[in-house]
Amino acid sequence: MTSRPPSYYHVFDALKQPGCPFCRLLTRDAHAFIDSLLYEYSMDRGVQQRFQAMRGLCNVHSWQMTTLHGRSSNVAVLQEVVIKALLGVLDDAPDLSDDSRAAGRGFLGGLGGSAKDRAGEQLAARLDAREPCACCQTLDEKEADYVEVFVGHCIPAADGANDPADEHAFTAAYRQSDGFCLPHMRQVLRRTTDRAQVRLIVAVQRAIWSGLNAELETFRLRSGAVGDARDSWRRAIANLTGEQAVFSADRNRS
Ligand SMILES: [Zn+2]
Ligand SMILES: [Zn+2]
């Protein structure tokens, strides 16, 4: 029997929990990354240099740092490192005086009076992040691994047999799951090369979207609906966009 990677068991467990299994795992991964960054690495010189190059984490993951109790001084250390770097950029900016422009010196160039002043544009470029958010990068790697694990282990029962009881527990867990959010469904579909797997994904997702559709109709027609329909509008958002604050706005997730 071949040994399975730890991520196999993580995905398997997540399939048995509510919501998109990958969003659930990535939310946990982001939390673990940020906790480790703050607890173990905020004083690490190499990490601090990388933090400077990133200009801090992205918006989503920077704000997640603020939700960890007891880590505010570590957050302060890392933010201070970035602010110092930004001050350094301002200090190192070429002469911005009108005199320097008139003389055609410095980084404004000597293009004459009609030339557009590029000082702002050039300064903005110096303030740009030189590396993407380290948390987003880690999540990209984890996400790719989860998708591979799913595609590699979700093996539908052969056509004709059509008995889900014959399927491995991993595939059965997917059949019973809440399915994927739309971004993760697209990722899985792009990676699969097995038509039977595509059919299974379509069947699972069709059932989930049909149920959600009916609940949304119930909610709309009977305001104050009770039962499952009550939070259908929230679950629809989670299903179409992924769980809250999993994806950074500037993250490539196609
Ligand atoms: Zn998802
Ligand atoms: Zn990020």
Q: What distance lies between the first and last C-alpha atoms, to the nearest angstrom?
A: 34 Å
Decide which structural class fits the backbone: mainly alpha
Average pLDDT reading? 86
Strand content range: under 5%
Could you list the spans in which at least 5 consecutive residues all have pLDDT below 50?
none
- Please tell me the total number of domains: 2
Q: Percent helix among the residues? A: 55-70%
Give the ordered list of helices and strands: HHHHHHHHHHHH
Biggest sheet details: none
Oligomeric state of this protein: single chain
Features:
12 helices; 62% helix; mainly alpha; 254 residues; binds zinc ion; elongated
Task: Provide a descriptive summary of the structure in words.
- The chain is mainly α and 254 residues long.
- It folds into 2 domains: 122 residues, no CATH class; 107 residues, no CATH class.
- Helix content is 62%, strand content 0%.
- α1 crosses α2.
- The longest helix has 27 residues.
- The two termini are 34 Å apart.
- The mean pLDDT is 86.
- The protein binds zinc ion (ZN) (2 copies).
- One zinc ion (ZN) binds next to α2 and α10.
